[in-house]
Amino acid sequence: MGTSSIYGGPPNSNPKDNPLLPNDFDFDENDKHEEDATEEGNNEEDDNSQNEGDTEENNTEESDPPKEVSWRDAKNYMAKLASGTYKDKRRAVSNHIKAYGGAKAASKTAKSGVGTVIGLGNFANKVNSSSFRTTLEEYNIDYKDKSPREVLNELTNLIAPVPITKDDSIARKALILTLEYIYEMLDEENMDYDSIDKNAFNLMIPKFIENYIYERIINDLGSRIELNSDTPQEAMSLETELKEYINAKVEIAFKGKDFSKINFNDATTQNKVESLINQCYTLMEE
User: What is the pTM assigned to this prediction?
Assistant: First the structure.
């Protein structure tokens, strides 16, 4: 199930010092007891942070998300979504974005995601201007006598090397999933990596952004899904629904867009990529 983890670090460590948490992650002191909490305990904690009265909450939970959402709000809503108390996965995604400060702030903090898109885009630009084989040689990737999977693994290590930060880990996982998607596409068609052209890479960038947004949610809020779902199967089902929803929004955001025409190697590249991610976040925040 995704990349979520409820591991809070070694004994006696301070979870606030955990480098895998976002810098602005609103740490809830009650979270350190989360693994031992019962569902009833979780519901009581959630109720303390909600408006008075279950009836009022149930009547308003499907309405538009509030303009300001704390990390605790986002975590509590995801917990109730996983338990079946709430039903609106769109609001869970919107709350996650709002907890970052909105679509613009979420995009600006996606540093490793932006960097990976740029790296992938630069590689794609070179493939478009020459060939996949020639580009591999320029990147010093030895492709001789190697399978497409091995070559794509080397490309992963080049574009998204061993992670240092939480966001590095998310971006690398998203890239692995994206290149695995391309590999499966080639395998189904009985093609090798020489068949990867601009059309394949035109699928890669939106697929990476989709995977990145999903992995970010799972990394931040996935423990709420694991702890509050009745069974592992229900947790996996909810994660699949979240991913499908994100996929649909990304497809809407990028419908008809030709990524091969973007120059990923100029002074405005970072702003361009932030704008691409922001387009998706804006649709989901609304």
Answer: 0.78
